[in-house]
């Protein structure tokens, strides 16, 4: 009888794989060894994601400002026989190719039942006892309820990215959206903010919206998005058709996993509201015309001051900091 690996041994092995990737792409022989290791104990996937998070702890996001090139969000062109890079390795670790990239957070292991909450500006990677992971964005709360027949995570509020490891005996459900989401092996984001529609984005795999239609579940394939209004959730309105989205939009929507916020043409006041989700420092825009200026760039979510300085230089505005407020103004509106 084969002895079961200890969690500590699995974590150490996962850290070794991450270190190998840091040294350069894997050879084909190493890639085969990695696949063999990953296909074993179900705890290994979560351990690999935790190891990646820890190895990237010292890295911080950098504001690119007006030099930002939206092409950076584009998916790389596939190559015939690529060597295995860190990104490809972590894609294998996630369900159906989900990537958890550089994040300045610590991974933790969640119990089979319990609640996890993040504070303002906190992003946390949680590994569940089956190897699936949940990444919680700022001010997010989830409740985990695992049993012998089902794996359930309730999104109480906020935004979370789920990477689901397949388990034919226990389907995985996300509750709290008005109707349960069911996944077998997938990676997807669910956003549930006060006063706004529930926003579901499927990154990899398929996610089913249970009891969404009289004919049965509504299946959301990879690279699709579904925004559920309160009437659709309550059953009084029609469920909208899932919309296909481009890989670059998926990358922008999930930039928070790396501690970043991405914009591509959103008005400045909308960008300011997004920064308010991550920091007590508020961006106030005194000039209505300035508030409508479009913003494009990749910025650190924890640096609203740096963002304000970058856009001020771009739009010829003045920056004034007063307590917890950063005031942007232009021309006569400066006073």
What is the β-strand count?
A: 17
**Structural classification:** alpha+beta
Question: How much strand content do the residues show?
Answer: 25-35%
Give unreliable regions as ranges.
56-88, 90-106
Number of helices: 9
Distance between the termini: 78 Å
Q: What is the radius of gyration computed over CA atoms, rounded to a whole number of angstroms?
A: 21 Å
Mean pLDDT: 79
User: Major sheet, described briefly?
Assistant: 12 strands, mixed
Globally, the shape reads globular
3D structure, described in words:
It contains nine helices and 17 strands. About 25% of the residues lie in helices and about 30% in strands. Strands 1, 2, 3, 4, 5, 6, 7, 8, 9, 10, 11 and 12 form a twelve-stranded mixed sheet that branches. Helix 1 crosses helix 3. It is globular and about 70 Å long. It has about 325 residues and is an alpha+beta fold.
Feature tags:
3-stranded mixed sheet, 25% helix, 32% strand, alpha+beta, 335 residues, 12-stranded mixed sheet
Can you describe this structure in just a few lines?
This protein is an alpha+beta fold. It has helices at residues 7-23, 28-38, 43-55, 86-93, 230-234, 247-253, 268-275, 288-291, 304-315; strands at residues 107-109, 113-117, 124-127, 133-136, 141-146, 151-163, 172-175, 181-192, 198-213, 216-220, 224-228, 243-244, 260-267, 282-285, 294-300, 318-322, 325-329.
List the helices and strands and how they pair.
Layout: H1 7-23, H2 28-38, H3 43-55, H4 86-93, E1 107-109, E2 113-117, E3 124-127, E4 133-136, E5 141-146, E6 151-163, E7 172-175, E8 181-192, E9 198-213, E10 216-220, E11 224-228, H5 230-234, E12 243-244, H6 247-253, E13 260-267, H7 268-275, E14 282-285, H8 288-291, E15 294-300, H9 304-315, E16 318-322, E17 325-329
Parallel strand pairs: 1-3, 6-7, 14-17
Antiparallel strand pairs: 2-5, 3-4, 4-6, 5-6, 6-8, 7-8, 8-9, 9-10, 9-11, 11-12, 13-15, 16-17
């Amino acid at each position: 009888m084969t002895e079961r690996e200890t969690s500590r041994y699995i974590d150490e092995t996962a850290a070794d794989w991450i270190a190998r990737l840091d040294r350069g792409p894997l050879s084909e022989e190493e890639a085969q060894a990695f696949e063999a290791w990953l296909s074993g104990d179900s705890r290994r996937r979560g351990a690999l994601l935790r190891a990646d998070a820890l190895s990237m702890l010292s890295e911080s996001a950098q504001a690119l400002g007006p030099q930002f090139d939206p092409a950076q969000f584009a998916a790389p062109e596939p190559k015939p026989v690529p060597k295995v890079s860190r990104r490809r390795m972590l894609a294998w670790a996630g369900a159906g190719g989900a990537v958890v990239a550089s994040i300045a957070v610590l991974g933790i292991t969640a119990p089979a039942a319990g609640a996890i909450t993040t504070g303002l500006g906190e992003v946390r990677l949680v590994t569940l006892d089956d190897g699936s992971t949940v990444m919680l964005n700022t001010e997010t709360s989830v409740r985990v309820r695992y049993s012998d027949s089902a794996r359930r995570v309730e999104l109480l509020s906020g935004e979370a990215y789920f990477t689901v490891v397949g388990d034919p005996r226990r389907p995985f459900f996300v509750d709290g959206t008005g109707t349960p989401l069911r996944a077998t092996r997938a990676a997807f984001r669910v956003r549930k903010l006060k006063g706004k529609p529930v926003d579901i984005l499927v990154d990899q795999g398929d996610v089913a919206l249970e009891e969404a239609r009289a004919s049965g579940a509504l299946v959301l394939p990879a690279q699709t998005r579904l925004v559920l209004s309160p009437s659709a959730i309550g059953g009084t309105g029609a469920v909208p058709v899932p919309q296909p989205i481009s890989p670059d939009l998926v990358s922008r929507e999930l930039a928070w996993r790396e501690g970043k916020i991405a914009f591509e043409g959103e008005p400045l006041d909308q960008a300011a509201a997004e920064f308010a989700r991550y920091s007590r420092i508020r961006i106030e825009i005194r000039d209505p015309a300035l508030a409508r200026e479009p913003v494009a760039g990749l910025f650190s979510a924890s640096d609203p001051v740096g963002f304000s300085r970058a856009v001020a230089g771009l739009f010829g505005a003045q920056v004034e900091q007063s307590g917890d407020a950063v005031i942007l103004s232009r021309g006569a509106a400066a006073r």
